[in-house]
Amino acid sequence: MIIAVDGYSSTGKSTVAKMLAAELSLIYIDTGAMYRVVTLAALRRDLIHGETIDKGALYKCLKDINIGFKYNADLNSYETYLNGEFVEEQIRSMHVSDQVSGIAAIDFVRDFLVAQQREMGERESIIMDGRDIGSVVFPNADLKFFMTSSPEVRALRRYKEMEKKGVKVSYEEVEANVRKRDYIDTHREVSPLLQTDDAIVVDSSEMTIEEVVELMVSKIKEIKI
Ligand code: DC
Fold first, then answer.
1. Which of 43, 73, 101, 103 has the highest CB neighbour count under 10 A?
2. Which of 9, 97, 114, 161 to mutate to test the pocket of ligand 1 (most atoms within 8 A of CB)?
């Protein structure tokens, strides 16, 4: 079984997908984390200067980027590794968040990651979240969800998350980052974020996470019958 969860950033996609994975015994794959790992690797190699990315050098170093996910039973979540190094926290930093849309807009980066994502779906039943899962990675997914909510609600959610982690950032900065990412994600030439006709739209602006999960579980059970 393959379940695709696409949508705007900070709509609660990954939280919801993780909860669904636990409830339905599926493997959860966070494809945004994969784009973030490539971004971190590019930053470490000093390949990003403002809006300019050294694509030639990035292309060459892709083969040296090995992305892994390990399940942490204590946290009931998957954590991200770059060549065996724990990078879960670093890939969520503002520095990476500011650059990741630029990296995700590069065609060869997408090809590199989409191939790995498809391989994961061949091996087991998965729930995968991202932007192009239902449109490009798995157009024949068993079920597709498209999550949305207002930019203000999303920015506030993200701001509170970061505040809790002790990250020093203003609400305005977070909202600007959310809006900038929405723009780039929906306007890029390669695999832009789009809602496919067969996706179930979930607007979480005025729903709790539990309500969203309940709605999605009921839709999944419908197809399993
Ligand atoms: O879900 P996220 O915020 O961690 O995603 C990080 C970035 O990666 C975001 O700008 C969109 C991009 N992304 C993408 O283009 N395709 C995916 N399948 C997943 C994420």
1. 103
2. 9
CB atoms within 10 A of CB 91: 23
How far is residue 182's CA from residue 34's CA, in Å, rounded to a whole number? 18
**Terminal Cα-to-Cα distance of the chain (whole angstroms):** 13
Ligand 1 contacts CB of residue 12 (under 6 A): no
Query: What's the total number of domains in the chain?
Result: 1
Provide the CATH number for the domain around residue 38: 3.40.50.300
* Side-chain-side CA neighbours of residue 161 (13 Å): 15
Q: How many residues does the chain have?
A: 225
Give the residue carrying structure tokens 């991200």: 80
What is the enclosing helix (H) or strand (E) of 53? strand 52-53
List, for residues 92-146, the tens digit of each pLDDT value. 998 998 899 899 999 999 999 999 999 999 988 999 999 999 999 999 999 999 9
